[in-house]
Write a structure and sequence with these properties.
235 residues; SIR2/SIRT2 'Small Domain'; 2 domains; three-stranded antiparallel sheet; 32% helix; binds 2'-O-acetyl adenosine-5-diphosphoribose
Length: 235
């Protein structure tokens, strides 16, 4: 079904990084590392308690130094090197796809490694030990306060025109490790279908939009992906 010429768009979510030891968002109780979403993932939460939000993301940024890409991330690199038309869109803010070797990659919800100036918008990777502590950091360009380079609820996801164009052109759309709860990402499946793409889901639990996939594989991405990628790239 997939050949070298097939145009493939992939959407990943927290599930692909779960086997690397990063907790998914909706794991059990609706809390992220013991915080309500509104406290740590909205502009209002940042305005109300910037110390709490800063430390929440500093903790997650420090965690990046302790985790490694898993076999799911590596399988997607294999697939990318086999295909001529490939785009990987991730909702994840960790850097495990790029550390595995993915190239054609869009972080639609931002990234943990860079920070962004609240004043001038300057974005800079700040991951050495001087930048991972509790104190707020200032911009090297204008001395404004740096904030997480993360798309919070109520903010616009990044690179949407590019993503929508790719969805309209793709022949196969694959969603991996995402619960289908958060829009606009949950709608990508429908956009791709409307344009005639074959749709595949790979997830540990059936996601919200499971009935709209042409094929659904239930299980761990790190176990399923290496098998199907090997099958696609050798047949
Ligand atoms: P969720 O936590 O909502 O969903 C993760 C999904 O991964 C669940 O459906 C799990 O069943 C599945 N899963 C867990 N382990 C897995 C594994 N080993 N292999 C395959 N699937 C596995 O995470 P997302 O859908 O990514 O946004 O959440 C979307 C967005 O919600 C996030 O990007 C974040 C959050 O609000 C922002 O931060 C803006």
């Amino acid at each position: 079904m997939i050949s070298k010429e097939t145009n493939v768009v992939i959407l990943t979510g927290a599930g692909i990084s779960a086997e690397s030891g990063i907790r998914t968002f909706r794991a059990s109780d609706g809390l992220w590392e013991n915080h309500r979403v509104e406290e740590v993932a909205t502009p209002e939460g940042w305005a109300a308690n910037p110390e709490l939000v800063w430390n929440f993301y500093q903790q997650r940024r420090r965690q990046l130094l302790e985790v490694e890409p898993n076999s799911g991330h590596h399988a997607l690199v294999e697939l990318e090197s086999y295909l001529e038309h490939f785009l990987l869109v991730t909702q994840n803010v960790d850097d495990l796809h790029e550390r595995a070797g993915s190239n054609n990659l869009i972080h639609m919800h931002g990234e943990l490694a860079p920070l962004r100036c609240e004043e001038c918008g300057h974005v800079e990777i700040m991951m050495d030990e001087n930048h991972l502590g509790e104190n707020f950091l200032t911009c090297n360009q204008c001395e404004g306060r740096m904030r997480p380079h993360i798309v919070w609820f109520g903010e616009m996801p990044m690179h949407m025109p590019e993503i929508e164009k790719a969805l309209a052109e793709c022949e196969v759309f694959i969603a991996i490790g995402t619960s289908g709860h958060v829009y606009p990402a949950a709608n990508f499946l429908h956009i791709a279908r409307r344009h005639g793409a074959h749709t595949i889901g790979i997830n540990l639990d059936p996601p919200e939009n499971v009935y709209f996939f042409d094929e659904f594989f239930q299980g761990k991405a790190g176990e399923i992906l290496p098998h199907i990628v090997e099958k696609w790239t050798t047949e």
